[in-house]
Amino acid sequence: MFRQRNCHFALGLLCCIIALLSTSTADNSVHILSKYQLLTSTTLKWLPIQHYNPNEFKEIVIGGFENIADGEDENYANQAEKSEVRRRPLYVCRAMHNSIWVAGTQKDKERVCTVTMYGSVQSYDKYELLENIDGAARIAWIRLDKYLQSHVGAVYVDNKMLVARHMVPKDKKEPRYTHYIGTLSSENFGNIIYVNEDGKEESAKSGDHLVETEPIRYELSSVKLNWPKRRDVKPRISRILSNVTITNHGEEPASLAEACTYTYKYSIYWGRRHAILNGLITTITLANGTSLPNITWGMRDEENRTEAYNVQVFLEPGTGVNVTLKANYTDTEVPYSATLISHYEDSATLSRVISGTRQEETLLDIVPEFGPIYFLSNYSVVPTTVSPPTTTETPTTTIAATTTMQPPQETTHRPRQASNAADTVDHDENLIVPPKKIDISTSMQNDDGGPLSLKNKGDYSNVACAKPSLLTLIASSLLLLILHRIT
Ligand SMILES: *[C@@H]1O[C@H](CO)[C@@H](O)[C@H](O)[C@H]1NC(C)=O
Ligand SMILES: *[C@@H]1O[C@H](CO)[C@@H](O)[C@H](O)[C@H]1NC(C)=O
Ligand SMILES: *[C@@H]1O[C@H](CO)[C@@H](O)[C@H](O)[C@H]1NC(C)=O
Ligand SMILES: *[C@@H]1O[C@H](CO)[C@@H](O)[C@H](O)[C@H]1NC(C)=O
Ligand SMILES: *[C@@H]1O[C@H](CO)[C@@H](O)[C@H](O)[C@H]1NC(C)=O
Ligand SMILES: *[C@@H]1O[C@H](CO)[C@@H](O)[C@H](O)[C@H]1NC(C)=O
Ligand SMILES: *[C@@H]1O[C@H](CO)[C@@H](O)[C@H](O)[C@H]1NC(C)=O
Hints:
The strands form four sheets. Strands 16, 17, 18, 19, 20, 21, 22, 23, 24 and 25 form a ten-stranded mixed beta sheet that branches. Strands 1, 2, 3, 4, 5, 6 and 9 form a seven-stranded antiparallel beta sheet that branches. A six-stranded antiparallel beta sheet has the order 10-15-11-12-13-14, with no helix packed on it. It folds into two domains: 26-213, no CATH class; 217-486, Proaerolysin, chain A, domain 3 (Proaerolysin, Chain A, domain 3, Beta Complex), CATH 2.170.15.10. The protein is rod-shaped. The chain has six helices and 25 strands. Helices cover 11% and strands 44% of the residues. The protein binds 2-acetamido-2-deoxy-beta-D-glucopyranose (7 copies).
């Protein structure tokens, strides 16, 4: 996985200075060959030996093995243990040798890195190991062709030399090492230069070089959001989304609806993490199987969302009500754990468990607040024995106050569901219907400002928000019952 050294033109100078500083001081980044330039790997790192704690598991890249002959290893007093440990790993290391970085070998538990260049073999106790961070890098030793042409993803010792190894020929008498780890100069089509098991410099025309393959996309699956640990990054901001006045200029009581549209900034950020390549498309699936929209890893995905909320109220003729749609704008962080699956071009996958923090800015708790119902003729408040109307109580209380009622022709145009619902309503004037939010995301077709009378349109399908709420059904069924009584 590679992070591009992406210097903006104007920042070029700054980048140069930083690059200079980082090469002259500690630069543990591992460079990788891409089609056009050297990149910095996000998943490999040169780990200084003084930062290496053997008790803390770190995956160090292995270049070969040393076969242990019986009875040779006095470190293993126990016979059973000895017979098991027959191969000891040879780790990839690099050391500063005559002022250039040279790749070599650190034998299993030895604390020296043995390298060579220009015939001078040296073992250093100040050196660096090649670490595969979290085992996240997909690396392979790939055979060099006869021209020693390197592949995309080739791992560099510094900026010119590649990490390479030579396979110890089978015809060698009782070889102890399977491979000799060394350096290949990428410039002069030179040889692979290494230290053999007798401590002498050798070179070879054939061998492997170390290549890292980058994933093409990620899959963040089985995401578990730890809601109890949720935290507000910024205090919640109460916002007025819209003020509307809904009026009934008609002849009869009606359930009126208005779609209030509003726009807000939505953003989601799943964080950055070492060993994950920023900029890759990432699919996300929650632990319960719900898929979330794709994101670009490491980027804050922002969008301006426009949604609509359908406000409904039942009004007597000649009355109106002011409605304020309120919400809280929130910016919260939730810790999560998930399985990150890296997908590669050849359909291979690598997965590992990660944890992080998701940050989301969004609107929550969208609620309409109803003012008192007033007469359109003189703006005085309609007397009522109960508290000001809300979505839940308005229809039943206002219907109870109904005195004048013309049996209108349109009764027959009312939807069939109304009469079905009537059976269940059972004349309960105090019936409380929970407020219902209607399909906000799809209810944007009407924003012409004027409230729509369900009655006048004669059909629910013309309402700004397609589906009538339970509220509307009950209100109109009550109305039907009353009309039925009168006629
Ligand atoms: C709604 O009205 C309140 C005052 O009643 C005002 O402060 C607010 O800016 C208005 N909001 C919108 C979105 O019109
Ligand atoms: C899965 O969980 C999310 C939030 O944790 C929730 O919004 C969604 O409704 C759930 N889906 C299912 C199918 O349970
Ligand atoms: C999300 O990404 C996956 C993998 O790249 C792709 O197959 C899918 O079509 C994407 N989905 C959307 C909605 O863009
Ligand atoms: C959202 O709208 C603001 C202005 O209201 C604009 O500056 C911004 O670029 C928009 N963002 C996106 C992602 O469209
Ligand atoms: C309703 O809003 C209008 C203007 O939007 C205002 O003039 C009127 O006083 C408000 N009425 C009530 C009862 O709040
Ligand atoms: C906004 O959040 C606060 C604190 O959590 C809460 O008391 C308030 O009711 C919320 N506002 C709305 C409109 O729900
Ligand atoms: C306002 O007008 C309504 C009828 O339109 C009437 O019933 C009510 O008594 C009037 N209120 C006042 C205070 O004039």
